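Before relying on records like the one below, remember that each one covers exactly one chain. Contacts with other chains, cofactors or solvent are not represented anywhere in the record.
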Amino acid sequence: MASPKSAAPEPPRVSPTPLPKPAEVVQYDFRPPASERPAHPTEKPIKLVQWNIERGYKLQAVIDELRALDGDVIALQEIDIHCERSGWADTGREIAQALGLAYAFVCEFEEIWSPLRKADAQGGGVHGNAILSKFDIVNARAVEHTTHPINWELPPAQQPHKLAAQEPRTGRRLTAAATVMTPAGPLLVYSAHLECFCGALARMAQLSDLFRDTRQQQAELAAAWRQREGAGGKEEGEEGEEGEEGAEGGAGGGPRPPVLAAALMGDLNTLANGVARLSPNYCTDHLRWSSLGWFEAELLDRLVLPVRDTEGEGGTSPAANAWAARQGLPAAVCRDLVNPGYADPFNARSDITFDHWKYRYLGLRLMTGKLDWVLLRGVKEVVSKAMGNSDYSASDHKWLEVCVRL
């Protein structure tokens, strides 16, 4: 007997408002009028918060946690707009509105509604990353990545990665970037979510794009500073004094341009350890085995971050990351994979931010790692740091908090 045909899948809801396209920026400002905002003295530390909110499945719990944290600058990943899996909510906007913050969202993907998707992954809307702040957000933009190990434009039948085929979408990995105008000065902020369906080397290539962007932003700041210095008080034969922004010790012994303060925050998906190493879906390059005994986060900590661009410090910078070149990464990527001054206040091995419940067995935790990062550049002091959501009740990631003086 022929089996009855299954019922046709329910069509997706139609969004009441137009949805953004990949690389499109959406901004809102839910702050009270400037005259009603509490003062933030310039000497008061800036509280940075990083969190992957797991699509906002538990949106109210996320809002409650963020309200208690009271962050000044917040980077969030896995923001859903009008997806069935997250109750059709505009999760980022609801968070910003509830907390009374300025908000910038960068769309990465159009999440196609499809019977191929499981209920907890069902789409119908869009997905991306966001930056929220108590302070003005300017120059919000999408940073393009040059390496895309998954071609998300392929239809499921042509998608070679079997897990990617189960979540049809269009778009690409993009990082949200903006300048936040803090009372202590501008802060360049990134909210990144690197690819998970690849190997460590592809993620390093994506990180190199953010290093390159930081150098470009620093170069623009330096050019503007030099222009101001050139137009400054030398018209009447003065020697010119070092401004507050400048620093002694340039190549000619004079003042140098200021260092751009930056916070590169995000879920960098540094997960190639534990049982993930056994899966060709999550570990697709030779480091899957050649880095045995290391957490992927340790590869960044020991082999990428120490390769520093020291030109601004009066030193000679390496032309490229030689270790990355030996692993077969393209020359352009190796040139970009030179750290423009970022430092990590957390421990790459012991500060676990992800502990997947599906892989806990007889007291063993088989899929853990430091996936989430707050990389800092040009800050005067790290005052404190913390992690939370340790029971993973609001999201499958911990949040990170770092208080800094700029």
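Confidence is low (pLDDT under 50) at residues 1-6, 233-245.
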